[in-house]
Amino acid sequence: MVDPEPFIEEAIEEIEAEVGDANAVIALSGGVDSSVSATLAYRAIGDQLTPVYVDTGLMRKGETEEIRETFSFMDSLRIVDAQDRFLDALSGVTDPEEKRHVIGEEFIRVLEREARETGADYLVQGTIYPDRIESEGGIKSHHNVGGLPEVVDFEGIVEPVRDLYKDEVRELARELELESVISERMPFPGPGLAVRVVGEVTREKVEVAREACHVVEEELESYEPWQAFAAVVGKGTGVKGDNRVHGWIVAVRSVDSRDGMTAQAQELDWETLQRIQSRITSQLDNVSRVVYDVTHKPPATIEYE
Ligand code: XMP
Asked: Atom 6 in ligand 1: which residue has the minimum CA distance?
């Protein structure tokens, strides 16, 4: 386990030494990895760092407002509304890896523009150890690993937490006194709600996933899951009032894990599951069914795509 205090001191010194008087950019998603990396870099080089938060339209409920508040101490923070751009680009795309590819491409374009505008020579990334392992193993392409450096001619890439596991990054976040909404935040995938919507990403499906995820996060807080969320997995018949409806099927997933490489489905009590089901189906007219996923990783992955 990393010793937070000396690690932070050393990381700040290293970033200062590497970036010097140059400018840097970081994609700040609000996840613990990018938040810690951005905070370390901000402490090292101040407003020479431009943290860029891209609202892809695939973010959690209330995420953008939360970011604006939490990182208000960073004067150079840029919030980019790119919702239409991402959702338009995803129209008609159904293959999971192709979805990641489209999102990665759009993301690169947006960040590239910001990097040019701010004259950034360095890219700071919140890559952690498991991201590198899974990408190298070809299990899944994580869009926060690779891609960007090939397109934008950065002088250097700075990855202050590249050798750490998620729980170690959380330790740093606590030591850096980041708010607990950040330090204790569940992992959220780079492609966002797009991987919590099976098949084509539409505004309607994303909205269902966003609201359902919010309900699940609220209801399962006391279980302290490593990750808990809802996904839109298909359509099925139901009855609402006197009508038969062909509504969305929402899958609820809650897992324990250390690093996301393996995970165990959590055992939840019936009342909790029923409360989740009832809130989701009553709040969302177009949802006809809620199921709970009992599969561990392996053989399933944590996300649905
Ligand atoms: P899986 O679904 O592969 O997820 O079992 C393992 C962990 O990684 C997250 N995840 C992603 N993170 N880009 C990311 O930045 C991605 O494309 C991606 N896919 C999965 C997932 O949420 C879990 O924490």
From this structure: 260
